[in-house]
Amino acid sequence: MAMRNPLLASLALAAILGATDATAQVFPSRTITVVVPFAAGGTTDVITRIIAERMRQSLGQAIIVENVVGAGGSIAVGRTARAAPDGYTLVMGHWGTHVVNGATYELQYDVRSAFEPISLTAANRQLIAAKKAMPANDLKSLIGWLRAHPDKALQGSSGVGAGQVNGVLFQHMTGTRFQFVPYRGIGPAIQDLVTGQIDMMIVSVGDLLPHVQAGTIKAYAVAARSRSAIAPDIPNVDEAGLPGFHTQLWHGLWAPAGTPKDIIAKLNAAVVDALADPTVRSRFAAIGQEIFPRDEQTPEALAAFHKAEIEKWWPIIKAAGIKAD
């Protein structure tokens, strides 16, 4: 029977709308997917799984980590850019996917505007290293040797693009020239460094440290303003004679552009809780990851950091004419 009282009808409608609105505002109410742009078992994958495991406790929902590989991570990142901006599809990107790819690939999205930043997560400092037979025993001597032997040395890199950008900056700052040898992954490149098939690499401290400790390669300097906590005996570049050569493989969590601010705030709070957890911090330290300070874990801090990284690296990449495969 139709409701004849206008007041009762209005109250009923308000109740229905209120219930619908309340339901719509509950986040999260289902499983969240965090897309990883690289294969399972790699650094980005491990970082994501450690954080996601702890975020589940704060958000009260399951979080699935999905690995989508290809094109230097741009396939996964592009898919996330096209996802619904509702907080249920996120991407763990890094310096390569959200800075370098924007200058080396013809992307179907703009890394500067296609995402809402959630938080910086962790970073891995980079190490300048060479094969054991390299005559130079310190960074200044390495630079001198490279200058004396232009185009003779081979630097291994993980692919074309992000893998060689550090080397390009090194050349620019030191006036040296060497050739790049792209590999399909870090593992094979490091193996060739250990066996002396290539001369040098600039990659993460964590990847190279076991070989440094075993005495099978030479370590010259960490590319940062301070020494690495996991390799305190290795000088930083400012100490070793190449001040300002600062680079790191940092990671950050993003959502598609247009994701509501209240959802971003909830996701950010969950990340911040995770990064403060002693177990998470211990697991990160074990793999050479350094967590950003609390005041750098805000969405605004990631946005500013991302913008500064683009302004730093894009001119270097474009001047060198680096293009992805």
**How much helix, percentage-wise, in residues?**
40-55%
CATH architecture of the largest domain: 3-Layer(aba) Sandwich
Output the number of helix runs: 12
Extended strand count: 10
Features of the shown structure:
2 domains, two-stranded parallel ribbon, 12 helices
Task: Walk me through the structure.
The chain is α/β, with parallel strands linked by helices and 325 residues long. The protein has two domains: 32-123 and 248-320, D-Maltodextrin-Binding Protein, domain 2 (3-Layer(aba) Sandwich); 125-240, D-Maltodextrin-Binding Protein, domain 2 (3-Layer(aba) Sandwich), CATH 3.40.190. It is 45% helix and 20% strand. Strands 1, 2, 3, 4, 7, 8, 9 and 10 form an eight-stranded mixed β-sheet that branches. It has a two-stranded parallel ribbon with strand order 5-6. It is globular and about 65 Å long. Mean pLDDT is 91; it is low at 18-24.
Brief characterization of the structure:
It is built from twelve helices and ten strands. The protein has 325 residues and is α/β, with parallel strands linked by helices. The protein has two domains: 32-123 and 248-320, Bordetella uptake gene, domain 1 (D-Maltodextrin-Binding Protein, domain 2); 125-240, Periplasmic binding protein-like II (D-Maltodextrin-Binding Protein, domain 2), CATH 3.40.190.10.
